[in-house]
């Protein structure tokens, strides 16, 4: 009999807690009354002070006060004020409720578990039969709900929790009686659960309790799962859910309870998407449309009544539009119905009507921006779907941009956070779309579903970059996300274009694919550097791009260039392709002459070494390529000519480049260039005397030493001459300074 003693003890604890809570409530009432008296006294004192201060001031005429009335007519000023407080205070009532009623919530949960364990214990001991078990469950639920009703007058929140626990007991009792004991048929069980849901909704409306309506909705949406037999009777299920959502909408309109709308929205979407994926049927389209209308009305209730849109209302508008499009278009594509663009177009027309409403009122504030953004986004999705773009990727990409656009207009962080959550999903979806390049053959150039989806992603990503430009200090609280987003965005744009190019040249030799890929990468980095200011690229990112650009030039000249020369000699690549390969020289020359002199890259000492190494590699490799192509007819000759070039011509090239580096460094006072020149000379001499001399014949050795000797002497002469010129300039400047000081 210990379970009975435990239940009695628990009831005594609840009664003791109720008495204690009543005393605390009386003390709180006395404290609030005293605080109200003090506040009233202070307000009277402040009012008297204001009246004293205002009495000597002169009065103004109505003409002087008239200009102050003008700002009142501007409708866009008050809209942000209606939105921002709702976002800040949205969670505080919930948190306060949980803090104040945590003990009660834990208690009712424990009580329900205790009753369940008691029933199980009684069943194990064979005290009661199956019918009696169900009867006890219903009776206990009714007693708990009655207890909550008795406590309603003095303990509103506590009674709501108690009543919700009673409702939970009724739900679970019905489920067990149907699934375990088979006391009811499925129709009878469904009618009972509907009755419990209706009763709980009426009680929540009567009690004016949002907590109780949440209990009711959770029970209402889980009821189909409780009485399910595994048969897919979706028509019956969604008829029930539509009626439940209509009841939710009515309660939300009467009581202005936002939480129940979100619970109903997510629960309905889960059911709809599961039905769509598990058993795609055309009849589900009707329930998507019904759900769209219900939740669209829910999101617009404040807009219709008070001409205001809270942050979560705007978020609901975005989610219901795009989630409905995903489900509806998926059904049409699976069942081969058309045209699929009918849904985004119809939704765009609905939002256009609201946009026109704002336009007719000359209200170009947040509401106008929101409806305009949704309308344009839906039209963009319609165009993408018309060209057979990938559904999920296109919708998510447009939706992410829309969220970012709304954030820029409202400055509400909820949309920015949603954007940062959704954008990685866009990238993942786009990567999955790119994998189709490996499985689909004979795609058209540009006008194929994969690349059209990539274009949508590229356009929306570029729009995101534009929206995130020129953020002020208050908007840079997520700097790490902005930097990571920027890198990912440029990476997505790069990969989208590169993969399309590679797909259409995939039948070419590997070295041609590699060369074209490197050439595209070089030009892509070059374009980013050209438009770095317009794209608002940071100095750190700009410097990294320059280093990457120089590294790509070295890889292209040394690896791709040599491979192309060998492929031409093997007759696998046409000789005119070498001219396409040399196109990388144009961006390098432009960057070297126009971009680098005005960038922060040259302020770093390491940059001069990077430029020197790049010039040395490019000049050496390209002269080698031209030498091989001009003298070799087949690949066997190339090996011998390569050795001859390395021994005879390469030291001369390095000597000339070293002289240029030294001269440039001395003339423009760039010591790093001079150092790189001297090191290059040292490398050339070391190579000459340790390896090249022993590989040359007598004639080549004589020619090499004479030419190198002349070059080194000329370099030394130029160095000495430049040194004397600099010395004379310094001496002349000092002499002029002394003369000026003597005259003064």
List descriptors.
744 residues; mainly alpha; elongated; disordered N terminus
Content of β-strand: under 5%
Rg value = 39 Å
Approximate helicity band: over 70%
Distance between the termini: 118 Å
Average of pLDDT: 78
How many distinct beta strands? 0
Shape: elongated
Series of H and E elements: HHHHHHHHHHHHHHHHHHHHHHHHHHH
- The helix-and-strand class reads mainly alpha
The unreliable regions are 1-10, 54-90
Question: Largest beta sheet, briefly?
Answer: none
Counting DSSP H or I runs of 4 or more residues, the number of helices is 27
Pfam families: DUF2339
Protein name: Putative membrane protein (DUF2339)
Biased composition (Polar residues): 54-64
Keywords: Coiled coil
In brief:
With 744 residues, the chain is mainly α. It contains 27 helices and no strands. Residues 44-71 are annotated as: Disordered.
Structure characterization notes:
The protein has 744 residues and is an all-alpha fold. Among the domains are: 128-231, no CATH class; 541-715, no CATH class. 81% of the residues lie in helices and 0% in strands. It is built from 27 helices and no strands. The radius of gyration is 39 Å and the shape is elongated. Residues 1-10 and 54-90 have low confidence and may be disordered. InterPro entries: DUF2339_TM. Keywords: Coiled coil. This is Putative membrane protein (DUF2339). Residues 44-71 are annotated as: Disordered. Residues 54-64 have a biased composition (Polar residues).
